[in-house]
Each structure stands twice: as C-alpha cells, then as structure tokens.
Amino acid sequence: MSILKTENLKKYYGTSEENLVKALDGVNLQVEEGEFAAIVGTSGSGKSTLLHMMGGLDRATEGKVFIGGKDIFSMKDEALTIFRRRHIGFVFQNYNLVPILNVYENVVLPMELDGNHADRDWVSHILNILGLADKKQKMPNQLSGGQQQRVAIARALATKPAIILADEPTGNLDSATSQDVIGLLKTTSSEFNQTMVMITHNEEIAQTADRIIRIEDGRIAGKAGDGNV
Amino acid sequence: MYETQNKKIISHLAKSDLKSKKMGNLFIIITIVLAAGILMVMGLFPRSLNLENRRLLSGAQDVIYHEVTKEQIKALEQDDRISYMMLDKNGEEMEVDDYIIHQVYYEENSQDIKTLEAVEGKLPQKMNEVMVSREYVKKTGKEPELGMKIQIPSLSGKEEVCVVSGFSKALENSKIYPISRSKAYAERGKGMKDVDYDVLAKIGGSSDMSQEEFLYTVRDIGTKAGVPRKQVNENNYYVDTLYGGLFTQENLVIFIIGLIILSAAVMVIYSIFYISITGKTRDYGQLRTLGMTKKQVRSFVKREGLLLTLRGLPVGLILGGLISWAIKPMGFSLANTAVMALITAAIVLLTVLVSILKPASLAAAVSPIEAAKYSAYTGDTGKKSTKKLQRKLTPLTLARMNNSRNRKKSFITSVSLGLSGILFIGAVTFTTSLDMEKYSRQGEYVYGEFVVGTSINAEEVAKNGFAEIQATANPLTGELRQEIGKIPGVKKILEKQNATIRYDYEDVEAQEDTVTGFSEENMGEIKELLQEGTADYQQLLRGRQILIRGNDLAEEIFGWRFQVGDKVTLYYYDGKQEDVWKSRTYEIAGILDHYHDELTDGWFLLPQQVIEKELPQVNLAEDWILSTDEAQRDQIEETLSAVVSENAKLSMETLREHEEQDAKAMNLMKAVMMGIVLFITMFSMINLINTLISSFLSQKTELAMLQSIGMTGSQMRSLIMGEGALLAIGNIAVSLIFGSLLGYGICSMLYQMGMHYMLYQFPLLYSLLYVAVVLLVPCLISFIMLRRFKNQSLVDRLREV
Prior knowledge:
The complex is a heterodimer of chains A (about 230) and B (about 800).
Chain A: E1 2-13, E2 21-32, E3 36-41, H1 47-54, E4 62-67, E5 70-71, H2 77-87, E6 88-91, H3 103-113, H4 120-129, H5 145-158, E7 163-167, H6 175-191, E8 195-199, H7 203-206, E9 211-216, E10 219-221
Parallel strand pairs in A: 3-8, 3-9, 6-7, 7-8
Antiparallel strand pairs in A: 1-2, 1-4, 4-5, 9-10
Helix pairs in contact in A: 3-5, 4-5, 5-6
Chain B: H1 2-20, H2 22-56, E1 63-68, H3 70-78, E2 82-96, E3 99-106, E4 118-121, E5 129-133, H4 134-139, E6 149-153, E7 159-168, E8 176-181, H5 183-188, E9 197-203, H6 211-225, E10 232-234, H7 236-241, H8 249-279, H9 281-289, H10 294-327, H11 334-365, H12 368-373, H13 395-403, H14 407-433, H15 436-440, E11 450-454, H16 456-461, H17 465-472, H18 478-485, E12 490-497, E13 499-505, E14 508-518, H19 523-529, E15 530-533, H20 537-541, E16 545-549, H21 551-558, E17 567-572, E18 582-592, E19 604-607, H22 608-614, E20 621-628, H23 633-646, E21 650-654, H24 655-698, H25 700-708, H26 713-752, H27 764-791, H28 794-799
Parallel strand pairs in B: 3-8, 5-7, 14-19, 16-18
Antiparallel strand pairs in B: 1-9, 1-10, 2-3, 2-9, 4-7, 5-8, 6-7, 11-20, 11-21, 12-20, 13-14, 13-17, 15-18, 16-19, 17-18
Helix pairs in contact in B: 1-10, 2-8, 2-10, 2-11, 2-24, 3-6, 8-11, 8-14, 8-24, 10-11, 13-26, 14-24, 14-26, 24-27, 26-27
C-alpha cells in the first residue's frame, strides 16, 4: 500500500511567459509504506522542490499530494502545520537546530509544540541508538556537524512519524560520518517501520536505498515521455 | 597611488552596500535626523529665549530713577555712563467704570526707549492737548476723530475739556488707558506740576556686562547723582538676560537637561549602529575571505556609518533650525544657529564614530571563517550546556530565552528605551502634579475665591494714602460685611488686617509700609520661625520692641538688612488731627523669615493690642476674602460686582480671573515641555522599532525552521509578540519606577523651594497611554512582520541561511 502519492504535481515560478520557471512539471510518484527511496538529480533539477511539496512545506501550483490517503493541500495552513508535526519528520542539510535549546529540548520541541509531553523513555531510547546519551544537556554549538545531524534525526524520529523526509542529510558531513548517519537512518526507520524519502547527491549513498528516483528538469526521468514511476 | 585607489574601492563598496539595505539605513538616518534636530533645538532654546527677551526689551529702559529733582536730573545728564535718557511723569490714575485712565507725560518716543507713539496725528504740544487711543474714545461713547474735544474726568470730580492731537495704540490685554499729556501740561498743569520727573535711562555697553556689574553701575550712577537706592529701579527683565555667572541654578538645570538628552541620543545612536553592524558581521566576514584586511574592514564600516550620518545630519540641522525659529521667531539669529549647527554636527559625528568603533573592531577582529558563520541566530548563546534536562517549552518561554540570548543588545535597547520612558513619566508627573487651582490660589486666594478691597481711586485722592482711608473712611464697614455675608453661597468672610504706617530706618525716611498684628496664640509659630534675636510676648506688649519679617526682600530692594538691636521709628495716622502722624520708636527684638505671607504685606509685626492702642477706632481692614460655595460662584460674582460698583471706593478681584491668566501662561510651558518629551519618545520608538525589526530579520530563518518542524502560525505569533512584550514590560517597569522617582524628586524639590502648588500626583492617564503605546508598537510590528513572512514561502525563508 502506498503511503505517499503525488498526482500530476506542478510548481511554476514567475508569472509571465518569458520568466516562467517550471520547477516541477507533472510529477506522479508513489512510495510504499516502509520503503527507503532516494531522489537524485542535478542542481536545479527540482528534487528539493519535490521534497518540500511532499512534506507540505510549500503549496503546489497544480496537482495533489496524498499522505496516508489524505489530500494535504486541501488542509488550511494551521491544520497542515499540525498534520506535518504529527506525521512527517524532516531532516535538513544544515540541521536547523534551535541554538538556545539543549539537545534534549531540541528533540522534544515538536511534541511540546503539539501540547504533548515527550515520552522520556522513548526519547532516551532514540538518543541511545544515535549515540547521544551523554550529550542531552549540551548546547548545539558544542557539537560536531555529525553530532548535530544526529540530533536532527532524533528530532525527526521522536514524534514517531509515518514518513521521514531528508534533504541531503549528509551534505555537510565527511564521508565516514555520512556513512554513519545513513546507517543510523536506515536502522531506525526499519526498526520503527518508517517510510523514508531522501535527497542526495551521493551516488554511493543512493545505491543503499530500496529505490532510486531520478529527477531531470522537473520531471521524473525513466521511460521516455512518461513521468510515472 | 595604490592607497588612493584602495580608498576609492572601499568608498564604492560602502555606497553600494548601503543601497542594498534600505530599511536599516532609513532607521539610522531618521535617528541621526532626530538626534541632530533635538540637540539643535535644545541648544538653541535658551539662547533664543534670551535673545528674544533682549530684542523685546531693546526699546525699553535699562533703569528708572524715580522722583528725581532738577539737580539730580542735571547730575544724571552729566554721567557719561548713561548713553541715553529721557524724562517722564506719572500723573493720577483713576478707575472709571470697568477701566482705568492714567495720565502720563513722556518727553519723547525714540528708538532707544519706546514710549507712546502717535500712530495718527501728532504728540500733544499745547497745554490742553492730549493723545489717547481710539479704543478709549469709543469707551466714552464717542466716534474717534483727530482734533475732537473730549472730557477727561479727574479724581477731584471736575472734568477737563481737551483736544485730541493724536491717537496712540491701545495697550494689549489691559484695562489701563493712558492719556498722554504735553510738556507744557507736565510743567504747569494742575494734575502734574507737583509730581516729580522720572528718568528713564539706557546704560552704554550694558549688554556686555554681567548682572553684578550692571547692578553696581546703575546704583553707582544713582549714588553719584544723589538719587537714593530705593528710587533706583533696574529693569529686572533686562537684568535676567545678562550673564549671571556659570553656576547659576538656571544654567545648571539647562546643563542637566542637555546632558540627559545628549546621553539618550548617544544611547540610541550607539544601539542602532551596534545592531546594524552586528547584523552584518557575516557580510564583513565574506569581505575578509575575499581578501580585505582588518584595517580595510574597519574603514569600510566607518565609511558606511559616516555616509549615513552625512545624509541625516543636514536634514536634522535644518529641521532643528526651523523648529527653533518656529518656537521663538523673535529670538532667531543666524549666527547662533550656525554656531549651534557646528557644535551639534561635531557631537553627532563624534557619537557616531564612537558608536561604530566597538562593533567595527569586532567585525574586523573575527577570523573570516568565523565571521562567515556568525549571525545573530547562530551567535554564541554564552552557554555550553543547561543545568536542567528540559526547561518548559512554550512560545513564551522560547521568547524569553531568545531575549536573553543577546544580553548586550537587549541591555542597550532597554537602557535607551528606559531613559526616554523615565523622561516621559518624569515630565508628565510634573505637569500632572502642578495643581493649577493651587497655583492660582497662591496668596490671599488660599482662603477664598473673591477678594473685596478698596479701589485705587480712593487711595489716590486721600492725601495721607491708605492710612487716611483706614482711619477715616474705610469702605469695608461692618454693615457692608453683613450685606455681603447674606449673599447666598458666601460661606465665610476672612478679614485681612494690616495697619498702614510710615517708618524711618537706615536711608529710608517716612516710607509707607504696613504693620501686622498677632496675638499670644501666634507666639508658638513665631518662635519657630524666629531666625535672629528673641520674641517675648510680655516684652513686646510693652510697646518698645518690634519683630521683623522678610529681611531677604529688604536686602534685595534697599541693599541693607534690618539688624537686631537697631532702632526703627514708626509713624501712625489715626485721623484725629488732619495730616498729623505720631511717631513711636521701637527696638528690633527678633527677625523672622516668613510669617503668614498670604495675609501680611509689610516688614513689621506687633501684638494686635499694641497696634490698637496706637490706632484706636481705626478700621484696620484691608481686604475681605470670601470663601464661597462652588456651585453658586457665577451668581455670587454677579451680585458682588453689583454691590461693589455701587461704591466707587470698592474694588474686587476674582479667582476665576487669576485662573484664566495663569492657565494661559502655564499651557504654553506645558506645551513646550510635552513637545520635547514627545520628541524624545519618538526617538526611542524608532529605536524600539529598529530593534524589533532587526531581531525579526535575524531570526527569519530560525522562525521558518521552527515552522517546518511544526510551529503553527498562532504559536509563532505568541513567540514574536512575547519577545516584543517582554522588552516592553521591562521598559514599562523601568520607566514607571524611575520616572515616578524622578517626578517625585522634582515635585518635592520644588515644593521645598516654596512652590506649594507642586503636589505629587501619579500621572495615571499618561502612564496608561504610555503603557498602551509601548505594548501596541511591538504588537503592530509583529503583525506587519508576520504578514511579510507570509508573503514569502516557508521554503524560501528556510533557504536563506
């Protein structure tokens, strides 16, 4: 069963004919529950835009995104935000940690914003797996890049989301640390039966995925003339 | 060559960098404009005021030598320190209906000393010619026309027919209508021939003298010409415009106000530059990576600051000049303005340079890589780890953590905001605490709302002055008192009693004054107020000793003080024998600073019994002060003025008239004060807005990130408004606490100085207004910023790291 589906997804920038940029131009895509998909493509191919659309961070010019059968663009902004923090976990290239909060607080923030108290045992379990058990009270600027990305992963996992969307999570890391982080992502997502969609530049990392989706000029590259996968 | 090219590039870079960041720069420019403007206005105001007074007084005399003899006039003419002099005579003053006519003679009307000018026709020449105002003729019920004949009433009851030779302008806002006489009349006319001339004089080079020098000069001229000190009347307004020394109270006040405003300006300029430069540290880091040296970064930052200053400064200087001109057009001087503009420019430039210095060296000091990473967002939190595993995480607690992130910035902003808040609350405390009713109720009006007394006509016609009226024909009779007491709404009539006497002391001979009575009950108070000597009631009852009050005033007028142990001679007039005054000599036993100032006019205090013994059957009433029911005052005024107008010897004054006059004067002062305060408040608002906007912009990505992990719009609103509100609440607390302390301090200081109408009152309305504005501004800014955020997609904002 597909947990994530896009239907003829389009994102155009610019208004007039001359400066119209088609970032996404009719993407049809399905991701199965528990699948690990890698999106690859050159700079400007539209892969980040696709990820943002799938996560409901941005709205499409045309087309739909279904998560667990729900049309997310039919929701109002406020509802979409709440849906996002409950069902989707994001991992960004530049970690996006809140500098004034310690590691533990960064991890539990989405839950606290939802008005829930975090399950301490669960959070500790995640932090143990990610090797951050002794860093709970440290501030982000005291951590290395790899450690910061692991905090970001812990945050994405903490709410037990159905889907994890990762935008070049290893982009700022050296290759050894990259392997480390990807390994952890795979381990945790399979342990918690989570679906993962990850953008990467790194062919080596892409090869570890269940499936590779290639994007070119805002379309899925595959069979000629067909945007479907 | 290389060096100059370098400079060109830096200057070019600075200019194009400024173009790219319009908003922040606008705030800096506005701040510079306001700072320069307010410094100009504050710097120019005291000088303009002085100059205005001087210009207004340029046609007035420096000094009057009163009642001089022919010999004294000659002596004065020969004193070459007098640059210009002319003669005048003041004839009788008389109340007619609701106005007063005053017979005068002026030798001439000149540029040096302006007197009455003939706006039509000419000055009177012949014995029976007069010059009056058109308004006066209309008052008498006739059509004004040159050469017409008018009847001039006199106190003797006879009317005199005169020819109008010219018309003068009526005095503004005055009940007095001068009737200008000819020289012929002044010399031989019945109403003036027995009156002595006054000399109006200008002193050469007096405008460069200090107050002390000037007073010495005019008094010395008098002494040399044989004019006694008490007949030398210097123009006090003019003296006030002269240099009184560096450490006068007035200069001190101006200096303190200037210092406060200057420090507020410095704070705001520093704060705005600090925020702007730290916000751009990344850009400077980028320039460093591209190969700019530390020195070049520093001069780049300085140049940016100076370019902005140079854009704002001229506008501020012109604005300040214009405002100064608008406030005091008569006091405007191009030279003063130019000097002040130079001083202001120097202060502002210096402030800007100092404000830039620290952040510029900060920007230059960081390594290129570090600087490139630096932003207010990733900036050092100052903490390595937290004590608690998890603190409370709500939008509001996040806001608090955010505010404490950059303590220095918050501190600078809070101080500059707080300072203007303190000034605002302090100033409004002053205006609220100034009890206008109490202010108008100084003197006799402490005890009531209407004062009934004798008219000046009665005094003028009595040969022995007010003493004769009291002894023989005091209109304030028991009968009348009963009649007034019956007017509905009159609660109480307080009788002010002073006996009019004449006295000899030092160089003063037969000077008219009053002696006030007291009883044994007052002795406690008298002993408390005693400054020198003794006050023994039994001794005083014997009629050999006397008490003195108000020695400071005596020194100001006569140049000497009453001394304990000296003898003073008093002359009493009991009216039993016409024109005969009987003398009594007393020894000065004690001297008091004050004593019942509202009801006491003269220097002398004696037991009531002693006075009554000297003046048996004399009606000592001077005034009646009526305390009345507020609701019935209009009716009382009507009835009372009917009673008063029936008897020509009576006159009345009302609290209402006083209040109207005082309100006019006070409103102007309040307006000026509020103007300055509003200016400063505007200044700090700019600072607040700038702080908020720059903090939002620096947090833009961070907020987007919070949104991406699930912060809703309303949570973000609470976060942003929370930050603003926290800043505002701190500011409100500081402003209210220290502003109230300042206001209270000023009030009690002025109260101590004898301004008993300054009663501390918390300015509730203004405080609420202030709180509302200070809370509303962050909310409004948050609202606008959120709107702007919404226009940009979340993804775009996320990218801007």
